[in-house]
RNA sequence: CGGGGCGUAGCGCAGCCUGGUUAGCGCGCCUGAUUUGGGAUCAGGAGGUCGGAGGUUCGAAUCCUCUCGCCCCGACCA
């Protein structure tokens, strides 16, 4: 958790002198979005700049050599609108997220459980704000049987209509609340610290692979506490856990903050989030943590007897992080050549590419490669030996680059002879990223050092990019100019109303992403209302 | 739901305006040979109800009508 603090200290320092001229510009369209990878998964990719035969140079290779389409390595579209098939390599990224978080949840005293996919419709209606927030995007189950239809197809049997429709969970506060009311009797039952790994469905009108899909995977933590202070502490603790994961595992320098009333979770007293900047300067809410007050406790009768034998309502929290984080990791680090995975998350941390010409060479190289592989495994590296004999070494280099594998180990006849290997790093392109003649005996240590360096390097690059694209303005004119120009995060003093926020959203498509934690120091003038205030808001266009 | 666009081989597309042998091209896929330290080359091959239905015509991927689906922009959202 210490590194979270460091990350935020760095953030504060950098954003003060972030306007360095010549710093990296936000392109309107992230390269990944245009060509190589995930975000364009369901789009047709146009390689023509003016509709005709001119290939944009950087996309030429990807356009001409899509032997294995890197986009489809991760996920692909499905017969169901807005839903995707997550393929093994993409799912491995989710598994890395899942494992990294689950470990942290357990370390903070939480246990896993599972609640039903279906929620009685009446449950959703019990918390007024909650219904308003979710009613518009619910899938509803109304029948439990199919019969042959008039045209030979199947239709729901009218005889098999459910008395009460079931809602496919868009989130589980209500059904978990009903369990909690049974589980909690006494102050001795508290705090109740539960997490569930599940799928949820939100009938979004507009979907994007990983970033917003109709069905998605997530974890939702739900906790009940005796006091407001404890519940708020829990809310912030889990926000810290998310930030710790994002920064140290995913190498994404997120900003922790409180959401504005307009962006708050339906039914929450306060919502906190981690906000990340994507490669195109847009913000992405990568995880949220809510203090729910006694709203759900009252709706679902979650009460306990305190030491004085007096009934009290619990204060509850909920917090969630989804497969959207997979998209965040891809978008935050990817470049024109494809993915760049942070080593901590990478399903394959190092890939060995053997190089040979004729058969006797092949045997020697493979022998050496197997030895190196064993050494790397012994050093705790997730390593793969690419034994394919139907593609060239050069093809393999590019193939694994596209897939974002952090370290490549090249082994050819010359390396066998010198009992050495060549190391290449994904984050430094071309020959500069290669180290020649690493003794085989030291390969474990060398690769581990490289992985640590790459992990830090990706976080550093992402942080520098974010800070270079975080700016302050003091007038609405300047704000609008910036949003339509370079984009990125805009840090301002803010004393506006909810309606002011709506107006700004309407006029600029930018929203308050959060009131960043620890940014209240120093009074200033609100860029919109001109009032003096100590409150600082972070605006951006968001996914 | 409003505005735009697109459905032709596994993927990306041309052909349609101006109807006419057996519907093409690139990539991928299969076989063989030569290759292999940064996306190999050559030769041969497989693969299509041209989204669907109806109509016009001697003849429809092409023209007309209807329909289904998808994508982009907008309203909504993690």
Strand content: 15-25%
**Number of DSSP strands?**
27
Number of distinct helices: 17
What can be said about the biggest beta sheet? Answer: 11 strands, mixed
| Average pLDDT score | 85
Alpha-carbon Rg, integer: 26 Å
Strand order of the main beta sheet, please?
A: 3-9-10-16-13-12-11-24-27-23-22
Structural class: alpha+beta
What is the rounded distance between the termini? 27 Å
Question: How is the topology of this model organized?
Answer:
Blueprint: H1 2-16, H2 31-36, H3 57-64, H4 70-74, E1 75-77, E2 84-86, H5 88-107, E3 111-112, E4 118-120, H6 121-124, H7 128-134, E5 140-143, E6 146-148, E7 154-156, E8 161-168, H8 173-183, E9 192-201, E10 215-225, H9 228-248, E11 255-258, E12 270-277, E13 283-291, H10 295-300, E14 303-305, E15 311-313, E16 315-322, H11 324-333, E17 350-354, H12 359-378, E18 383-385, H13 393-402, E19 407-411, H14 413-418, E20 420-425, E21 434-439, H15 443-468, E22 470-472, H16 476-484, E23 489-493, H17 498-508, E24 511-516, E25 524-525, E26 532-533, E27 536-540
Helix pairs in contact: 5-9, 12-15
The chain binds one RNA strand of 78 nucleotides through α3, β13, β16, α13 and α14.
